[in-house]
Amino acid sequence: MRRMFFRICLAVFFIAASFSGCIAFAADGITGLKAIFEPITDKAEARRVLIAIREFERSSKKWRLAVDPETFETIILPVHDTARTDDSAWKDTPFIRALEIYNARPQGITNNGVIAGNADGVFLTVDLCPSKKAFDREMFTRTIKAAGGHGAPVAIAISGLWIERHKAQFDWLMDKAREGALRITWVNHSFTHPFDPERPLEENFLLTDGVDFEKEVLETERLLLERGLMPSPFFRFPGLVSDERLHSRLKAMSLIPIGANAWLAKGERPKTGSIILVHGNGNEPDGIKRLYEYYDASTGKARLLPLREAFTGVVD
Ligand SMILES: [Zn+2]
């Protein structure tokens, strides 16, 4: 699994990522990115069934982004290395069940999706919505320290506009990932992250009139792919606001919504299995203060887990 991941990353994208000092990927950018749903096998590892969820072109070749439906890990494969499969085992897998359960008819319009996992630890999610405030680098360095100094798992809910407006800070995050200090799960947080403080929730965030939902999803994925990063099959609705229509569209794009039961700035406290939500874009200093209190109370041994383990319970 990991061997495959590195093979693809090294062969295809690492060269691009190593030139991340310039955003000039236009000549070798991602084109034709679209949502698909096709059970496939990787010809090099034929016994493993994957779900191809995206197809795109790069360097005049066609590629697929696929999800391992048992582990929720994603992988990028050339189309010619994949084969359609008749094996129907994918239908009864944790990924397919999660897509159904967490996109089922929502209760209300806030915090729908998974809010905690059945695991002996917590899942830190950090939202990077568009913001003019300072990026919270210290929060990430304190997180690395709290996790024992290396390999801190963190799910970053990233908006496309934040990437475009914070180049140096985004490069810093990619460096931390390359060094292994952070193990980042990239969670899609839409591209423009619409928000108007004057409007009611029912007409706000991605429920705002005129929003092109599929474009909001795909444009952020495109930015990640062009930088050599691996999109996860997870999505966080801006403001945690969604309705039935958005969930059916999210399911059609094979993404699982990530809520939270410990939004720290709102005074919610982490419990075992909690998905913790803080903002790393300077918007919620109270949440950051409470995160540090949580780390201090954990005496340097906060058990942070990769987000996919909220579904699988796998410990690596
Ligand atoms: Zn946000």
- What is the class of the largest domain in the CATH system? Alpha Beta
Number of helices: 9
CATH topology descriptor of the largest domain = TIM Barrel
Taking the sheet with the most strands, its summary is:
7 strands, parallel
User: Which small-molecule species are bound to the chains here?
Assistant: zinc ion
CATH superfamily of the largest domain: Glycoside hydrolase/deacetylase
Question: Notable features of this structure?
Answer:
single chain, alpha/beta, 2 domains, seven-stranded parallel sheet, 30% helix, globular, disordered N terminus, binds zinc ion
Q: In brief, what are we looking at here?
A:
Helix content is about 30%, strand content about 25%.
Description:
The chain has 316 residues and is an alpha/beta fold. It has two domains: 2-95, no CATH class; 106-312, Glycoside hydrolase/deacetylase (TIM Barrel), CATH 3.20.20.370. It has nine helices and twelve strands. Strands 10-9-8-7-6-12-11 form a seven-stranded parallel beta sheet. It has a five-stranded antiparallel beta sheet with strand order 4-3-2-1-5. Strand 6 (123-128), helix 3 (137-146) and strand 7 (152-158) form a beta-alpha-beta unit. The model is unreliable at 1-27 (pLDDT under 50). Bound molecules: zinc ion. Zinc ion is lined by residues 127, 129, 189, 193, 238.
